[in-house]
Amino acid sequence: MSKLRSFRHADGEVKAWFISAFFLSAAVRFTLAFLPFRKVMAWKGRPGVDSPAEPDPESLEFRRSLQAALQMSAKYTPWKNECYTQAITGRILLSRKGLPGTIYVGFRKNDAGGFEGHAWLRSYDRVVCGGGQSEGYAVHSFFS
What are the domain boundaries of the chain? Predict the structure, then answer.
C-alpha cells in the first residue's frame, strides 16, 4: 500500500518517466541476462569519454524527475533493478531528451577481501542514480 501511495503522490512528470523507466529497465535487464555484452556496450556510450560536468539549469527539473522515477522503478520492479541496470536505463532516457550522461563503473574491496562493483550515472552536475553509494569506489571505466 505504501508503494501505491508514493506513486499516487508523485508529480505527473515523475509518473510518466517512471513508466518509461519501468519498461525500459525490463529490456535492459533482459539484454544483460541473455544477449552478448557487445549489445550492452552500445547502450552505455563511448568508453573513456566524459560528459560536461558544469551546471545546466534548463534541464535540472527533468534530471530531478528522472532521478525520482529511477528510484521508484527500482522499488516497483519484480526483477533485479540494481545500479548497473538503473544507470543504463537512465542513460538511455537522458539520450532520448538529448542530454548527456556518463556511466561510471567502480570497484572497492569489501571486508572479506573480495571486490564489490557499483555503477552510477551523472548528467551535468547531478548524479542521477547510484551516487549515494558511490563513496569509496575507485572508478574503473566510464562511458559517455
Answer: 2-39+49-143
